[in-house]
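Input record, target 12 of the design panel.
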């Protein structure tokens, strides 16, 4: 008794197509067409699945490469990396440097150290338009006496000029900050004449009275 070939047998399709070739005189049956279509469908499905898998794996690799090539996170910069100098401190340092340069050139004076103490920062005086209004009223009391009452008021407004898109007040002049006191420590200041020369130089340079200047002799 002959065994019926199973569909899982690898020679099933070979026998199927050999029977088709041998029966040239017979007309192909519907079963044969169905088998051909099924085989083509299986091949197409296998090919599609393999193509989709390769594309997905490629997309994952691209995503991974993009993630690894991301730019590094910027580091925090210290907020207090430098200290700015105020206007008053800038004036004090400039006065101290200029006085030191002058006193170093005085005969008998050397190794000078100067400290300047200012009262405030520079002050600016602005241009103003003043409008003064005055009114005089004559009043009479019950006894027949008269008196004159004068009332006046002044309205001041800053003069503003336009510079590009900004508006700025007009500055008439800028006054330097007032000096409260000066301390000078120098070698040779123990000599009375040298000390007088130092005081005179400082008072004339800064236009301050002599009682605001202290001069001390440097040891060594």
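The sequence produced for target 12 reads:
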């Amino acid at each position: 008794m002959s065994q019926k070939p199973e569909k899982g047998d690898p020679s099933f399709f070979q026998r199927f197509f050999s029977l088709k070739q041998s029966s040239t005189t017979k007309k192909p049956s519907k079963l044969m067409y169905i088998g051909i279509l099924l085989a083509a469908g299986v091949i197409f499905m296998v090919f599609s699945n393999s193509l989709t898998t390769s594309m997905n794996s490629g997309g994952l690799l691209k995503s991974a490469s993009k993630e690894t090539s991301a730019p590094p996170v910027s580091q925090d910069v210290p907020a207090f990396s430098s200290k700015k100098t105020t206007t008053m401190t800038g004036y004090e340092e400039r006065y101290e440097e200029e006085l030191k340069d002058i006193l170093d050139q005085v005969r008998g004076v050397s190794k000078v150290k100067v400290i300047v103490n200012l009262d405030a920062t520079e002050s600016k005086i602005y241009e103003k338009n003043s409008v003064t209004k005055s009114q005089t009223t004559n009043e009479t009391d019950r006894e027949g006496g008269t008196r004159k009452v004068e009332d006046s008021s002044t309205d001041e407004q800053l003069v503003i000029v336009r510079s590009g898109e900004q508006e700025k007040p007009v500055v008439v002049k800028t006054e330097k900050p007032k000096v409260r006191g000066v301390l000078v420590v120098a070698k040779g200041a123990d000599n009375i004449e040298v000390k007088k020369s130092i005081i005179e130089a400082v008072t004339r340079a800064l236009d301050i009275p002599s009682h605001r200047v202290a001069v001390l002799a440097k040891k060594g």
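The first strand starts at residue 110 and ends at 118.
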